[in-house]
Every structure is written in C-alpha cells, then in structure tokens.
C-alpha cells in the first residue's frame, strides 16, 4: 500500500511538472518480451512473453531534448524451476507442483527521455510491477512463490519514424522477489530480468 501511494505521488509530481511542457503525445505500444527469474533453483534461460498498454510523452525542455515518459502496461511472463530446485527448497517444495510459473503483472515504467539527435531517444528510469495473477504451486501450503511487488531499473533506446517508434529495452529487478525463504538459508534470492523489443504509435 505504501509503495502504491509513493508511486502515485511521484507520478503526480511528474505530471504536474510536465503539464507546463511544450509538447504532449500519447499512444499505444506492444512488445515481445524475453524474461527470466534469476536465482537458486530457477532456470536461468530467458522465456518469451508479452507486454502492451499505453504511454504518454511530455517534453520538459524547449528544445525537445529532455522529456518524461510514463507508461501503464499489462505484462505476461513465464518462469520455470531448475532441475536442482529440490536442493535449495528441501522442506518447502511441493513435491507434486508444476515446473512452470505463469505470471501476469500491471507494470508502470516512469522514464526520463533524452534525444541527442532528432528521432533517436535514450530512456532511463524505474519500473514498478504488481503481480495480479500467478498460476503456480511450487511450494507447500499454497504459499505464493513470488512477492507482489517487483521494482526494476530501466535502460533503453527508441527510434521514431513519423508517428511510429521502435524500441529496445532492458530491465533489471532490484528487489528480491522470492516470497518463501528456507529457514536454514539466508543466501537464496530471486531477481527478475527483462529484454523487450517492440513498437509504439502516437494517437495524438
């Protein structure tokens, strides 16, 4: 709850600043996502997924070089247990649990924009994801394997062609998303990673 209020406050602050800017655009975007949950007991390879939603763009400087880009996205991702999962979660694992985790998030990136040259943009900022659905049963007692909140650092680039832009982006999860920690192990942590390739189109 506190994280949600903080996120809303930051977003309101940026929107208030951006409302004084010279240019405003908004549109739709979609991307192919390759993601993973890195950590002991999880497969390290990336898995395909999807991300799509809406974005807005404000210029924060008169020359258009600096701007702000908030987004509201729906994310679908998968992850899979590794063959050595039972080694790390001896007493916590669900012996009859499925190997795959199917996950759905509401994702809010808050990005600064820098345009060193026309039609080329560098994005950097933070991303908050809230887990709204998880199809998984890898731990005993119906305990959730993952925390609800995932906070990531974002870096990416995009190239604009008229009202369409193409982008690539990398997201590294900062916080530990493992919700079930073995009592005898304090060194097991899980972190998310994402690589995204996609396009957006300005409606306005």
Molecular structure report:
This protein is mainly β. It is 10% helix and 55% strand. The chain has two helices and eight strands, in the order αβββαβββββ. The protein has an eight-stranded antiparallel beta barrel with strand order 1-2-3-4-5-6-7-8. The longest helix is centred in the N-terminal third of the chain and has 17 residues, at 2-18. The mean pLDDT is 91.
Question: Would you spell out the secondary-structure blueprint of this structure?
Answer:
Elements: H1 2-18, E1 24-38, E2 47-59, E3 66-80, H2 85-88, E4 100-117, E5 120-135, E6 149-161, E7 164-173, E8 191-202
Antiparallel strand pairs: 1-2, 1-8, 2-3, 3-4, 4-5, 5-6, 6-7, 7-8
What global shape is seen? elongated
From the helix content, strand content and strand pairing, which structural class follows?
mainly beta
Q: Could you state the order of secondary-structure elements as H and E?
A: HEEEHEEEEE
Number of strands: 8
Low-pLDDT runs of 5+ residues are: none
The main pleated sheet reads as: 8 strands, antiparallel, barrel
Q: Considering DSSP H and I runs of 4 or more, what fraction of the residues is helical?
A: 10-25%
Beta-strand content bin: over 45%
Task: Write down the overall mean pLDDT.
Answer: 91
The total of helices stands at 2
Radius of gyration: 19 Å
What is the straight-line distance between the termini? 33 Å
Strand adjacency order, main sheet: 1-2-3-4-5-6-7-8
């Amino acid at each position: 709850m506190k994280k949600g209020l903080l996120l809303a406050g930051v977003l309101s602050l940026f929107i208030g600043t951006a409302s004084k800017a010279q240019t405003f655009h908004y549109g739709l975007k979609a991307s192919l996502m390759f993601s993973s949950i890195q950590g002991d007991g999880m497969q390290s390879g990336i898995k395909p997924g999807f991300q799509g939603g809406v974005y807005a763009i404000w210029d924060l400087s008169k020359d258009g070089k600096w701007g702000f880009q908030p987004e509201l996205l729906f994310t679908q991702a998968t992850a899979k247990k590794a063959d050595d999962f039972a080694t790390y979660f001896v007493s916590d694992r669900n012996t009859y649990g499925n190997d795959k985790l199917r996950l759905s998030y509401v994702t809010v990136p808050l990005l600064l924009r820098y345009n060193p040259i026309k039609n080329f943009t560098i994005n950097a900022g933070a991303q908050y994801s809230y887990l709204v659905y998880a199809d998984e049963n890898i731990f005993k007692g119906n305990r959730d394997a993952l925390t609800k909140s995932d906070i990531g650092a974002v870096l990416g680039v995009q190239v604009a062609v008229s009202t369409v832009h193409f982008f690539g982006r990398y997201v590294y999860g900062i916080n530990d998303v493992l919700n079930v920690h073995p009592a005898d192990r304090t060194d097991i942590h899980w972190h998310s990673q994402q690589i995204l390739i996609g396009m957006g189109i300005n409606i306005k």
